[in-house]
Amino acid sequence: MVGTPAIASMLVIDRLGYKRWVFPPYQFYLFNVHEGLATWFGESPPLYHLYVSMPILFTSMLPFVLHGAYIAIARGYATAQPAVVAVAAMFVFSLVGHMEYRFLYPLLPIGFMYAAVSINSLVGTLPSLETGRRSSRDATAGAKPKRWRLWSVRNIVVYLLMTNVPASLYLNLVHQRGVVDVMAYLRSEAQDRLVEDIGFLMPCHSTPYYSHLHQPIPMWFLSCEPPLEKSELDTHYCEADDFELDPVGFMHRVFDNSKSSVYGALDVLNLRYKPGQTRRKPSHLVLYECMAKRIQSELTLLGYSECARFFNTHFNGDARRKGDVVVYRRPLTAAK
């Protein structure tokens, strides 16, 4: 079989990485379906991908995707195999208790292919697979010219531009930009050696990390690792939830003024705090505005003052991520 060497190579690479033999598709099924451990991040309704993921991924092109898949199958304009693969993948991912639209990103090329079939069929006559060898001149010979068509190339292009470009510009240039802008600010401060270490008191993975900082600065964020056993789902400790429920108590428990570090020291840079472990009080803290208001007085008592603020979004469905992104700092203690 052609794929056997590739599969064998993947198994060997996984063996080197995990230090044991694993088969990723089975591990995916075991973790997400059999054990249901993905529900640690929240449980989704069974049809989530159908009425949430698909509209988000394809936006205003979704009608063309559906129409293209229909005529490809019903009229033989294109093969149905990619559609079968996409439906099968969506079904498998729907078995997982926790769903996100980003899980279906690999299906975008398949959808766009069928959208192209749809658009071409609306603006002209397409040959079927059986007549594909005929010239386009013969295939369109029977088409009657029209002075005005609803689905002309111009109308479709204008429709797609009007429904996608404004949203794309807003979502890429305005919406939730604060979580990226703050990293540019911290990078600049770190280059000037004004940062010792950084703590992100935000829901886990709220901002980019070293991919934007590019400086040997110790950093940590509130963790949210899932449990590895189904029996631990109800009792597994989540540092991000612990902080959200009692932020002041959390800071009293984990911040230890006796811990010290040296700027850029590899032993500190490579330190990975365990969830809930006591750690040094960092020189900089990054929070969402909604949380900063809750613990403003405690931050002042700990010696922190606001040094920067970045607009993040006009709206957010997550109450924990509302408002600007705010940076607090305290006087540096490391010698420069």
From TrEMBL:
GO biological process: GPI anchor biosynthetic process
Cellular-component GO terms for this entry: endoplasmic reticulum membrane
Listed InterPro entries: GPI_mannosylTrfase
Keywords, alphabetical: Endoplasmic reticulum, Glycosyltransferase, Membrane, Transferase, Transmembrane, Transmembrane helix
Membrane topology annotation: Multi-pass membrane protein
Family designation: Belongs to the glycosyltransferase 22 family. PIGB subfamily.
Listed PANTHER family: GLYCOSYLTRANSFERASE, GPI MANNOSYLTRANSFERASE 3
Protein name: Mannosyltransferase
Organism: Coemansia pectinata
